[in-house]
Amino acid sequence: MMTTRERRPRGAATWLLAGATVAALVGAAPASAEERPAWRDCAGEGAPTGLQCATIEVPVDWAAPDGRRIRLDLARLPATEPARRIGSVLGVPGGPGAEGIEDLKLAAGDLTELRRRFDLVGYDPRTTVWRDRWPQECARPGAALSDPRDQREYAALAAAMTSAFTRCRAADTTGLFAHMDSLSVARDMDAVRRALGEERLSFMANSYGGVAAAAYARLFPRRIRAMYLDGAVNQVDGWPGQHLRALPVRERIFTRFTAWCAATPACALHGEDAGAVWRGLTRAADREPIPVTSPEFGRGELTGWHLRSFAFPGDPGPGDSHWLAFAEAVGKARHGDGSGFADLALGNARVWAMPAALAMTCADGRGYRDYAELDRFGAQARTVSPNFGGASFDALGCAGWPLPVVNPARPLRTRGLPPFLGAGSTWGDYVWTESFTRMVPGSVTVAYDGPGHVLYLAGKRCPIRYATSYLTELKLPEPGTTCPAE
């Protein structure tokens, strides 16, 4: 649910810009997912010493296991103390479309203690295969994304998106368009478990990987030895609910920004009520959108909804650079120059209307069911968040999804599940992860008191220490545990 500005290293939206991967589509083949993969040394430039690679094949459609298959790439770092080895830890990447193998390479140096007792395993999910093979037709936005003001505008958006989805599906030669729901991803994860020869796996899931983690817990609860969730989305709670949970946090961070601006002469809005300036700007832009031109995305208009959805950077950035740039862009935009927001707003509005991106999420129930639901949640959002309330940008594009929502939000049965450990930033994703872990009896979520998203990939030592203790000893910290900012 993050915008393209808020990327971590290998972040939630990095698939939008990533290049080729070694994952490839293959035709039907005699190799079975039950067979052990053939591991080979693959350590190269930038790769950790000892990295091994392999592939497995899984069905495109798990309901038709003898049909078309895809190849998924795996990588592992074997345990450094094999005599004391416990098993394997499988990383579950976010995105969707992020590369788990790149996550493993990135995190390896910070997980040396965990690696003493475990093989660390990364894999590139089916969404990564799709990301590198989607047809050009699927990359064309289906609509100019905006917040529908009434049933008529919502119906027009849905019709435009249905047409775009239909064209994308017709152009798809992979078969994946209809099979990227997280239940399918979870079945792939269990194929990885079988290929590793493990009776049970331990997991490290991050960001959108929490959706696949929940699907795995739904399908294979007794195959989970331990589950660590870092900045994970709680799809079980429903996407509109997650949006509402996040808004009060965003309001608190915005209050920090306005206090910072009042105390910082370098802030372009210093000496003014920065919050009032922002609200005045967004209201004016809703009445009369600001025309802008982006060198990358062409001409467009910025409405107040575009600004509320995409403009504010929650993380101040190094030396408060993000907040300095935001304040300067607000100051210019209120005088009709929206150039400081053009790339960000137009780029994100384009991405979240691309069938290629949306096909990886809509079958997980990401969209609004109808205009009545959008209107109801939009009103709630505006009530709890005067600065950022409105329709959730990441759900709007799924209007008009032409296929069944095979993985809707619904209660998760917790019988057979071990206690989970979560971690998240109090500046953002803690509320998502904590709402997930509290569903599972005995679970705990560690609060990281600083900005960030996916703490173990950012090398945050305190959360990594708790994750290592939990995964190794199945030992949870005390409820209410907090890590200071690093």
From TrEMBL:
Task: Check the UniProt entry and state the signal peptide residues, or none.
Answer: 1-33
Q: Is the keyword Signal in the record? A: yes
Protein's UniProt name = Pimeloyl-ACP methyl ester carboxylesterase
**Domain (Peptidase S33 tripeptidyl aminopeptidase-like C-terminal): residue spans on this chain:** 396-483
Task: Identify a single GO molecular function assigned to this protein.
Answer: catalytic activity
Q: Which UniProt keywords apply?
A: Signal
Note the Pfam families from the entry: Abhydrolase_1 (PF00561), Abhydrolase_4 (PF08386)
The AB hydrolase-1 domain extends over: 179-279
